[in-house]
Amino acid sequence: MFHDKTEQLKKLEWERYRASHDSLTGLYNKEEFYRQVERLLKEYPDTEFYILCSNMKDFKFVNELFGMKKGNAILRKQAEQMKQIHGSFAKTVCARIQDDHFATCIPKAYFNEDKVVEQIRSMQKEFTNSLFHLHLYIGVYEITNREEPVSKMCDKANLASETIKNDYKTCIAYYDRHLLEQSIAERKIIGEFEEALEQEEFEGTYM
Protein backbone atom coordinates (compact mmCIF):
# COMPACT_ATOMS: atom_id res chain seq x y z
CA MET A 1 0.00 0.00 0.00
CA PHE A 2 2.78 2.42 0.97
CA HIS A 3 4.74 1.45 -2.15
CA ASP A 4 1.71 2.11 -4.38
CA LYS A 5 1.21 5.54 -2.84
CA THR A 6 4.88 6.38 -3.36
CA GLU A 7 4.66 5.36 -6.99
CA GLN A 8 1.55 7.47 -7.46
CA LEU A 9 3.31 10.50 -5.98
CA LYS A 10 6.32 9.97 -8.24
CA LYS A 11 4.04 9.70 -11.25
CA LEU A 12 2.21 12.87 -10.25
CA GLU A 13 5.49 14.76 -9.79
CA TRP A 14 6.69 13.58 -13.20
CA GLU A 15 3.47 14.69 -14.86
CA ARG A 16 3.77 18.10 -13.23
CA TYR A 17 7.36 18.37 -14.40
CA ARG A 18 6.42 17.46 -17.97
CA ALA A 19 3.63 20.03 -17.93
CA SER A 20 5.95 22.84 -16.83
CA HIS A 21 9.29 22.01 -18.48
CA ASP A 22 10.71 21.75 -21.98
CA SER A 23 11.53 18.11 -22.71
CA LEU A 24 14.68 18.85 -24.75
CA THR A 25 16.49 21.32 -22.48
CA GLY A 26 14.95 20.84 -19.04
CA LEU A 27 14.20 24.56 -18.80
CA TYR A 28 10.74 25.93 -18.06
CA ASN A 29 8.32 26.04 -20.98
CA LYS A 30 6.59 29.24 -22.08
CA GLU A 31 3.49 28.94 -19.90
CA GLU A 32 5.47 28.14 -16.76
CA PHE A 33 7.92 30.96 -17.49
CA TYR A 34 5.04 33.43 -17.57
CA ARG A 35 3.74 32.09 -14.25
CA GLN A 36 7.17 32.20 -12.61
CA VAL A 37 7.83 35.77 -13.75
CA GLU A 38 4.46 36.87 -12.36
CA ARG A 39 5.41 35.19 -9.08
CA LEU A 40 8.80 36.94 -8.93
CA LEU A 41 7.26 40.34 -9.56
CA LYS A 42 4.75 39.83 -6.74
CA GLU A 43 7.20 38.34 -4.25
CA TYR A 44 9.94 40.94 -4.82
CA PRO A 45 8.18 44.28 -5.42
CA ASP A 46 11.33 46.29 -4.67
CA THR A 47 13.60 44.40 -7.07
CA GLU A 48 14.21 45.73 -10.58
CA PHE A 49 14.08 43.02 -13.25
CA TYR A 50 15.19 42.49 -16.82
CA ILE A 51 13.52 40.25 -19.38
CA LEU A 52 16.03 38.76 -21.83
CA CYS A 53 14.82 37.11 -25.04
CA SER A 54 17.23 35.41 -27.42
CA ASN A 55 16.98 34.12 -30.95
CA MET A 56 19.24 32.51 -33.55
CA LYS A 57 19.32 33.83 -37.08
CA ASP A 58 18.26 31.29 -39.72
CA PHE A 59 18.34 28.44 -37.22
CA LYS A 60 16.10 26.35 -39.48
CA PHE A 61 19.05 25.94 -41.84
CA VAL A 62 21.00 24.11 -39.13
CA ASN A 63 18.57 21.20 -39.23
CA GLU A 64 18.53 21.27 -43.04
CA LEU A 65 22.32 21.39 -43.40
CA PHE A 66 23.47 19.25 -40.47
CA GLY A 67 20.40 17.36 -39.27
CA MET A 68 18.14 17.49 -36.23
CA LYS A 69 20.78 16.00 -33.93
CA LYS A 70 23.11 18.96 -34.49
CA GLY A 71 20.27 21.43 -34.06
CA ASN A 72 19.26 19.85 -30.76
CA ALA A 73 22.88 19.92 -29.58
CA ILE A 74 22.98 23.69 -30.15
CA LEU A 75 19.72 24.19 -28.26
CA ARG A 76 20.96 22.09 -25.33
CA LYS A 77 24.24 24.01 -25.31
CA GLN A 78 22.42 27.32 -25.09
CA ALA A 79 20.27 26.03 -22.24
CA GLU A 80 23.41 24.82 -20.46
CA GLN A 81 25.06 28.22 -20.82
CA MET A 82 21.94 29.98 -19.54
CA LYS A 83 22.04 27.79 -16.44
CA GLN A 84 25.76 28.52 -15.96
CA ILE A 85 25.34 32.28 -16.29
CA HIS A 86 22.02 32.82 -14.54
CA GLY A 87 21.05 29.56 -12.86
CA SER A 88 22.95 30.17 -9.63
CA PHE A 89 21.15 33.45 -8.94
CA ALA A 90 18.09 33.69 -6.74
CA LYS A 91 15.04 35.45 -8.17
CA THR A 92 15.94 34.22 -11.68
CA VAL A 93 14.04 31.98 -14.11
CA CYS A 94 15.04 30.66 -17.54
CA ALA A 95 12.92 29.07 -20.26
CA ARG A 96 12.80 27.77 -23.78
CA ILE A 97 9.82 29.62 -25.23
CA GLN A 98 9.70 27.75 -28.53
CA ASP A 99 12.06 26.44 -31.21
CA ASP A 100 15.28 28.52 -30.87
CA HIS A 101 13.66 31.23 -28.74
CA PHE A 102 14.79 31.39 -25.10
CA ALA A 103 13.94 33.80 -22.28
CA THR A 104 15.28 34.79 -18.87
CA CYS A 105 13.95 36.97 -16.09
CA ILE A 106 16.77 38.22 -13.90
CA PRO A 107 17.29 41.01 -11.36
CA LYS A 108 18.86 44.01 -13.05
CA ALA A 109 21.64 44.05 -10.46
CA TYR A 110 22.70 40.51 -11.41
CA PHE A 111 22.89 41.03 -15.17
CA ASN A 112 26.48 40.97 -16.41
CA GLU A 113 26.53 41.99 -20.07
CA ASP A 114 30.24 41.25 -20.56
CA LYS A 115 29.83 37.71 -19.27
CA VAL A 116 26.80 37.08 -21.48
CA VAL A 117 28.62 38.39 -24.55
CA GLU A 118 31.63 36.20 -23.72
CA GLN A 119 29.44 33.09 -23.54
CA ILE A 120 27.68 33.98 -26.79
CA ARG A 121 31.00 34.45 -28.60
CA SER A 122 32.23 31.12 -27.25
CA MET A 123 29.11 29.34 -28.47
CA GLN A 124 29.27 31.01 -31.87
CA LYS A 125 32.87 29.93 -32.27
CA GLU A 126 32.02 26.35 -31.34
CA PHE A 127 29.18 25.96 -33.83
CA THR A 128 30.23 28.21 -36.73
CA ASN A 129 31.85 26.67 -39.82
CA SER A 130 32.25 27.34 -43.54
CA LEU A 131 28.60 26.48 -44.22
CA PHE A 132 26.89 28.26 -41.37
CA HIS A 133 27.60 31.27 -39.14
CA LEU A 134 25.76 31.00 -35.84
CA HIS A 135 24.38 34.40 -34.91
CA LEU A 136 22.80 34.44 -31.46
CA TYR A 137 21.29 37.77 -30.47
CA ILE A 138 19.48 38.97 -27.34
CA GLY A 139 16.96 41.70 -26.63
CA VAL A 140 16.78 43.18 -23.13
CA TYR A 141 13.68 44.82 -21.68
CA GLU A 142 13.66 46.49 -18.27
CA ILE A 143 10.32 45.81 -16.57
CA THR A 144 8.69 49.14 -15.77
CA ASN A 145 5.04 48.10 -15.56
CA ARG A 146 4.55 45.04 -13.39
CA GLU A 147 0.88 44.78 -14.35
CA GLU A 148 1.76 44.31 -18.01
CA PRO A 149 1.31 40.73 -19.34
CA VAL A 150 4.61 38.85 -19.40
CA SER A 151 3.97 38.00 -23.06
CA LYS A 152 4.05 41.74 -23.85
CA MET A 153 7.31 42.12 -21.93
CA CYS A 154 8.80 39.37 -24.09
CA ASP A 155 7.46 41.06 -27.22
CA LYS A 156 9.36 44.21 -26.28
CA ALA A 157 12.58 42.29 -25.62
CA ASN A 158 12.15 40.55 -28.98
CA LEU A 159 11.53 43.90 -30.65
CA ALA A 160 14.92 45.05 -29.37
CA SER A 161 16.62 41.88 -30.58
CA GLU A 162 15.23 42.33 -34.09
CA THR A 163 17.25 45.55 -34.44
CA ILE A 164 20.49 43.53 -34.43
CA LYS A 165 19.27 40.47 -36.31
CA ASN A 166 21.54 41.25 -39.27
CA ASP A 167 24.39 42.79 -37.28
CA TYR A 168 26.89 39.99 -36.70
CA LYS A 169 29.15 42.21 -34.60
CA THR A 170 26.46 42.97 -32.02
CA CYS A 171 24.65 40.43 -29.88
CA ILE A 172 22.77 42.49 -27.25
CA ALA A 173 20.26 45.31 -27.75
CA TYR A 174 18.12 47.19 -25.24
CA TYR A 175 14.48 48.13 -25.63
CA ASP A 176 13.39 51.75 -25.44
CA ARG A 177 10.16 53.60 -26.15
CA HIS A 178 11.43 54.79 -29.52
CA LEU A 179 11.54 51.19 -30.78
CA LEU A 180 7.86 50.70 -29.97
CA GLU A 181 6.87 53.96 -31.65
CA GLN A 182 8.93 53.05 -34.70
CA SER A 183 7.35 49.59 -34.87
CA ILE A 184 3.83 51.05 -34.63
CA ALA A 185 4.63 53.58 -37.38
CA GLU A 186 6.03 50.86 -39.65
CA ARG A 187 2.99 48.64 -39.13
CA LYS A 188 0.71 51.57 -39.90
CA ILE A 189 2.54 52.23 -43.18
CA ILE A 190 2.40 48.54 -44.12
CA GLY A 191 -1.31 48.43 -43.26
CA GLU A 192 -2.04 51.50 -45.39
CA PHE A 193 0.01 50.06 -48.26
CA GLU A 194 -1.82 46.73 -48.15
CA GLU A 195 -5.16 48.52 -47.96
CA ALA A 196 -4.23 50.59 -51.02
CA LEU A 197 -3.23 47.46 -52.92
CA GLU A 198 -6.52 45.76 -52.05
CA GLN A 199 -8.47 48.85 -53.10
CA GLU A 200 -6.60 49.07 -56.39
CA GLU A 201 -7.18 45.38 -57.03
CA PHE A 202 -10.88 45.79 -56.28
CA GLU A 203 -11.21 48.81 -58.55
CA GLY A 204 -9.34 47.03 -61.32
CA THR A 205 -11.65 44.04 -61.04
CA TYR A 206 -14.73 46.26 -60.98
CA MET A 207 -13.65 48.10 -64.11
From TrEMBL:
Q: Which Gene3D superfamilies match?
A: 3.30.70.270
Question: Which InterPro entries does the protein's record reference?
Answer: Cyclic-di-GMP_PDE-like (IPR050706), GGDEF_dom (IPR000160), Nucleotide_cyclase (IPR029787), Rev_trsase/Diguanyl_cyclase (IPR043128)
Identify a single GO molecular function assigned to this protein: cyclic-guanylate-specific phosphodiesterase activity
Identify the domain of life: Bacteria
User: Would you tell me the protein name for this molecule?
Assistant: Diguanylate cyclase
| SMART domains named among the record's database cross-references | GGDEF
GGDEF domain segment(s): 47-177
- A Pfam family that the UniProt record links to this protein: GGDEF
Task: Please state the span of the N-terminal signal peptide per the UniProt entry.
Answer: none
